[in-house]
Design goal:
five-stranded mixed β-sheet, globular, Sulfite Oxidase, Chain A, domain 2, binds the ligand Nc1nc2c(c(=O)[nH]1)N[C@H]1C(S)=C(S)[C@@H](COP(=O)(O)O)O[C@H]1N2, 8 helices, four-stranded antiparallel β-sheet, alpha+beta, binds molybdenum atom
């Protein structure tokens, strides 16, 4: 897959602002962008099916770079009051709620891999001893629904620092118990509202919502918030993830 290596420069961004607006994620996925525009943008002939797929992926990768370039690492997303919190949260996954495989919290361990100095694994009990941060934020799913959720658990940046992760690396991968994999960029991992959640509304996470450990960040769409995490890897290698393989934006900022 095509991934530009150079950062987008601001002049390019201004010049292409209209185009950026025209090919926003929804427009691309709904086929609102003309084949002519795609041909012009990507330089490939998009008259054939394979080329259309390729062109959409090219635009998607380009869109990722734009989103990454304009991401504000210290900008805080809105937070809400405890009285606004949805109870229980709204379930979603690529399978139905009765297919959730419960995790045994006693034998479960969080594995660490890649550019991390201390790769010792963590039990749930050890994670519960870490200082907790609470965030009350909006969850937004691309399917067109949202809810306000109250999440708490260790701050991801604090956790990465504690285990000696290379904070200059590019990506954090989350490998999940249901064979779902998602990754986020380092700037998002270090954002002050990104946590490894172990609780919802003050109680331990229930099975469907990612027990015992899931990601919650205020700056990403629902599908980036990996549930049932079993391993965390810090790396410079870009790999496709569960939804990016389906053509959804990898960056997936809100
Ligand atoms: N492991 C795993 N994490 C996942 C998913 C999944 O299928 N598997 N679905 C994602 C999607 S699309 C959404 S909208 C949210 C839903 O989180 P919730 O059930 O806590 O609301 O989880 C995300 N994390
Ligand atoms: Mo979602």
């Amino acid at each position: 897959m095509f991934r530009p290596t150079k950062p987008i420069d601001q002049s390019g961004l201004t010049e292409h602002r209209a185009l950026v607006e025209a090919i926003n994620r929804r427009g691309v996925l709904r086929g609102a962008v003309s084949l002519g525009a795609l041909t012009m943008l990507t330089g490939c002939d998009v008259s054939e099916n394979d080329s259309v797929q390729q062109a959409l992926r090219t635009v998607s990768a380009w869109n990722d770079r734009v989103q990454e370039a304009i991401f504000r690492p210290h900008h805080l997303a809105p937070t809400y009051r405890a009285s606004q919190v949805a109870k229980p949260p709204r379930f979603n996954a690529h399978f139905s709620i009765d297919e959730v495989k419960p995790i045994d919290g006693v034998s479960w361990q969080l594995e660490l891999a890649g550019r991390i100095a201390d790769k010792r694994s963590w039990t749930a009990q050890q994670l519960y001893q870490l200082p907790e941060q609470e965030i009350i934020i909006r969850h937004v799913c691309v399917e067109g629904w949202d809810y306000i959720g109250q999440w708490s658990g260790p701050n991801l940046r604090a956790f990465l620092e504690r285990v000696g992760a290379d904070l200059t690396a590019k990506y954090i991968y989350f490998i999940c118990n249901d064979d779902f994999t998602e990754s986020i960029d380092m700037a998002t991992a270090l954002h002050p509202q990104t946590i490894l959640a172990t609780k919802y509304a003050g109680d331990r996470l229930a099975d469907p919502f990612g027990y015992p450990l899931r990601l919650r960040t205020s700056t990403k769409l629902g599908y980036k918030n990996a549930k049932w995490i079993k391993a965390i890897e810090v790396t410079n290698d870009y790999r496709e993830t569960f939804w990016s393989k389906q053509g959804f934006n990898w960056f997936a900022g809100i």
